[in-house]
Every structure is written in structure tokens, then in C-alpha cells.
Amino acid sequence: MYRTHNNGELRLSDVNKEVTLVGWVSKKRSLGSLVFIDLRDRYGYTQVLLEESKFPIAKEIKSEYIIQVKGIVSKKDVPNMKLPTGEIEVVAIEVKIVNTSEQPPFIIADETDALEDTRLKYRYLDLRRPVMQNYLKTRAKIVKACHEFLDSHDFIEVETPILTLSTPEGARDYLVPSRTRKGSFYALPQSPQLFKQMLMVAGLERYYQVARCFRDEDLRADRQPDFTQIDIETSFLSEDEILTLTEQLIQKIMKDVKGIDIKIPFRRLKYDYCIDTYGSDKPDTRFDMKLIDVKDILVNTTFEAFKNVKVIKALVVDSHASITTRKVIDSLNLHAKKFGLNGLTVLKYINGQLEGSFLKFFNEEQKNQLIERLNLKEDDLVIIAGGNKMKVCPSLGALRTSYAKEMGLIKPNTFDFLWVVDFPLFDYNEDTKEITPCHHPFTQPKEEDISKLKDHPEQVYAAAYDIVVNGYEAGGGSLRIYDQNLQKEIFELLGFSEEDIQRKFGFFVNSLKYGTPPHGGLALGLDRWAMILGGTDNIRDVIAFPKNLSAVCPMSNAPLQVDEAQLDDLGIQVKDEYRNK
Fold it and tell me: Could you give the 3-state DSSP secondary structure of residue 90?
């Protein structure tokens, strides 16, 4: 027996018991003839006391050695109330080194100064840190809550293929070459979308899966190339029923994982309102800083940038006029350029008056209307943008979030749940007049908008919905197209030829011919839920072995080149310029 108890278990009630513990040496302190060791395992820490004269082996013990200790539980003279085991210690009567360790490349503790690349390279050491293990425990609790809830609501867990067909779903596919059909490729699934819909055709009615998904897209702090979602699909449920069922699932997750009772139903905000008011389709509404429409006031100014524009919006930032320097204004304009805007109009309200170089384009009535519309107070900063709605609003929305974080407007340890509903069916490029699916090409249009598909597809809304938590899109879904003629019309609108449809979606389109039920569903992003509930803003923290921002695994160095013999088996040749890189 390696141990009788774990290192987070012993309490005052165990005093005088003989116990056996095992674990890693987290810290070793020598005080004269006494040696104190903090012994760590997955469950916590226990302090071990050794008399050096009785245990010469103590001099050999170093950080991260695994040791086994038999001893007597004793009450501490000076308790450490920060630890659950802080009132006791184990006085050793036997000590054994189970395994040795080299000096770790960084301190294995919650607080570490190691760079992330170093932590990822030695991820197996990074995961020894209690904070990292707690992230993974949170993730596991979320999965457990989902299993329990969905199983109890008559859902069937079904696995769908990992090796499948390349289909256009919004991101680049990861391709897997076939050895048996040289020159042909599988694709790793961006989601189980088509398969879960065909499970509805198959009559399963309620499906779920903890699904691995793969997308070859640019990475950021909350995105990975391979990720996990709680995938759900149902038949014969309305949009309202699906949203209500999901709210009940989230209610259980929050109770089981965080011990928090949340109220349902959640607010449901329309997509257009979110963009107009918060500059985002995943708004954080824990603070009350909104975009304000000022087009009617400024559209007739002599300022060229505001002429013939679709939208003019303003953002007011409290108590920032006096600290906004020319350097800050330059940085704001650089920010605007990232969103395709030429710049921003920045004004200050100081001593009861507006100040700023742009005021020469405004008359007195326009100035007074701005002051009244924006309800300006002393030292307010006003940031105005004009142009295309989908450039103006997201630009100001990003500034809204940035200023809120800087000003401490977001109360910590709070959770803000809402639905964003009624998305456009298509993203519409005003310059090229082209449309692309806002979600995916299998999304059901709103019944009342189907008549607009032919002549005004940009005006068609979808039966689509996203769950938003604290400004993160934590999941989303839609009702699906179940009528084969409507699906064909959508494909044609998107420019797919009959040959394209059969080659890329033929197996799916054929399934729609055989009595497809009305169906819909959604997917919750497991990694993002673990990130939000774990209290970190880095999605890599909640994934055991993640990739860095270059989609490289620093620990294994994947991806790497392979032997020529492997390539020959697959019928693949690598271009000379990519060899030995």
C-alpha cells in the first residue's frame, strides 16, 4: 500500500493516528535539526516533520522527489489556516525515496514566473500546479453535469466520425491523406453538423456528444485548432423549447460546478439591437456603457467623413477627457484602422464645453444637441465614428470593452447570461453584393422571411441563437432546414452548382428526401465554459495539452516533417521550398 490517506485529507480528528502518505516534495525547509517538507499530491498538501538525526536521507531529498512517509499525525503548534490540513503535521517514523527528479525548469506552484512557452514545453510539470489541476477539475465537472442532465432527459450519446468529407463550413479543413485511395483526402470535422442532422433523419430525436472538432484558422487567446463542444440535436422541438432546455442544462452546470443558483429564463436580445447598442453580437452587459446614435445630429455637418454614411455612433467614457493625450488619440485612430475605418472623432467635455479640433465642422446647435443627447458630464470623453455599420459598431464595441476593463467597471466573480437571437441568415458584403452564410448553409430562415430569399436575401433572418456569458460566445445553434427544396434554394443562392452540391453534400442532401423531421440544436463550447467558470482568460489553461498561437505543440514539436517512406505510402510529394523547415 502506497498510502492510507491523501495529502488533503487529514484533520485534527486524525491526531495520534499512524498514517502513510506519498507525494511530491513541494518545499523543503531545514530549521536546525528539524526538516519540514510540504508533501503535495492531487488532493492538497500535508506538512511532514523529520528529525535530521534520525533520517540522514533527508539531506538527499530535493524538490519534486517522490517520497513515501509513514508517521504519526500531530497537532501543529502554529497552525496555517490557509490550508485545509494546516492544523496538523505528520511526524515521520519511516521515510523512503520512491523516485528522484532533476531540478525543474520553473517553480511548481500556483504563482510562477515562467513564460508560457516554457510552461507548454514542460506541460507535464505545469499540470502539477494546483491551479492548473483545478482548471481540469472544473472542466471535468462541466462534462459530468452535462452527461447527468442529458441522460436524464432521454438524450442518446452517439459518436460521429473523425475521418470524414471536406465540406465548406466557414473555416479551412484539416486534411488527412488516404493511403488506400492515393490522391484523396479525409477531413477532420469542423463540427458534427451534417452527421447529427442525419441522426435526426434516422429518428433518434435526441442526440448528444462530447465532440472533438478541428478548424484550421488563425488562433487567439480563446481559440484552439482542436477543441471540444457539447453537441446537442433534437427533433420536434421549437426554438423556444430548445432554449428553455439549454437554460435548464446551464442552471445545473452552474449549481454543480460553482454552487451558484441562477435564475432562468435568460434575457433574449435581438442581434441588431446588440450590434447597435453594444457593438458586438456577444455583448458583456455587466456594465452600462452603450453606443449612442447621433447620425440625425451630425449627418449635415460640413465634416466630409460624416457625409453619405450609413451610421454615426458615439461612445462616452466617464472621467477620461483630462487624461486623453495626443498619443492616446493616435492609438485610438490606429485601433479604428484595424476595423477598416479611416479614423475616429475625439471630443472632450471640459468646463461645461466641448473641446476638439473637429468642432470647427459643427455649428452651435449641433454641439448643444450632442451635449444633451449624450448627457455629458464634466471630464467626459466622446469618441465618434461614422461609416459602414459593421465597421463602426464593432470598432466602438471593442473600445467599450477595453475601457470597461481599464476602469474596473466589471464586477469580478459575476456571471451575465443572455441569448442573442434573430441573426441574419447571410453575411452581406455591401461592396461586392455577395452573401455568405452567417452560421452555416443548413440554418433555417425565419418562416416570415422565406419569401424574401430570391430578391432580398440580405434582409432574411435566421432561427439562430447564441448563448453569451460575460461577453463570450459560449455556444450557439439554430433550427435546421428540413425541406429539401428550401435547402436546394439556399445552396443555389450561395452559388453552388448541382455538381458542387452532389460532390460536397450529396450524402446529406439525399438524406433529406426521406421524411426529415423538423429539428434543431446547438453546441456549447466546453473549452470556453471551462475558461469562464475556471476564472482564467486563456483557453490554453483549461486544455491539458494545447497548441500555442502558431498552432504548434511546444512539448512534442508537432507538426513535424515525416519520413519520405511515409509520404511515398500516401503518394505525396513535398515541394522543395518546404523541406527541412
Answer: strand
pTM over 0.85: yes
Distances, alpha carbon 115 to alpha carbons 112, 165, 221, 222, 486, in Å: 9, 39, 15, 18, 52
Confidence of residue 331 (pLDDT cuts 50, 70, 90): very high
* Domain range 287-407, CATH class: alpha beta
pLDDT tens digit string along 95-138?
999 999 999 999 999 999 899 999 999 999 999 999 999 999 99
Let me know how long the chain is: 581
What pLDDT was estimated at residue 496?
87
Where helices occur in 93-238 by DSSP H, the ranges are 116-121, 123-126, 130-152, 193-201
The residue whose grid cell reads 435566421 is 462
- Cis before 559? omega within 30: yes
User: Taking the domains of the chain in order of start, what are their residue ranges?
Assistant: 12-99, 132-264+466-548, 287-407
Distance CA 470, CA 280 (A): 12
CATH superfamily, region 12-99: Nucleic acid-binding proteins (2.40.50.140)
Per-residue pLDDT tens digits for 221-255 = 678 999 999 999 999 999 999 999 999 999 999 99
C-alpha cell read off for 324: 486623453
Contact 247, 468 (CB under 8 A): no
Dihedral sign, Cα of residue 199, residue 200, residue 206, residue 210: positive
CATH no. for 132-264+466-548: 3.30.930.10
Which residue type, as a one-letter code, is found at position 405? Answer: K
Q: What is the dihedral of CA 331, 324, 300, 278, to 10 degrees?
A: 70
The answer to whether the CB of 286 falls within 8 A of the CB of 416 is yes
- Assign 19 to helix, strand or coil: strand
The contacts of residue 347 (CB under 8 Å, 6+ apart) are 354, 355, 356, 358, 359, 370, 381, 382, 384
- Give strand pairing partners of 214: 226
Instruction: List the one residue out of 14, 8, 196, 153 whose CA is nearest residue 86.
Output: 8
Q: Measured between alpha carbons, how far is 352 from 294 in angstroms, rounded to an integer?
A: 20
* 46: nearest Cα among 15, 88, 77, 17: 88
Backbone phi and psi for residue 374, each to the nearest 5 degrees, phi listed first: -90, -5
Q: How far is CA 351 from the centre of its chain?
A: 44
Whole-angstrom Cα distance, residue 462 to residue 473?
17
Instruction: Please give the Cα distance from 234 to 196 (Å, whole number).
Output: 9
Gap between the terminal Cα atoms of the chain: 50
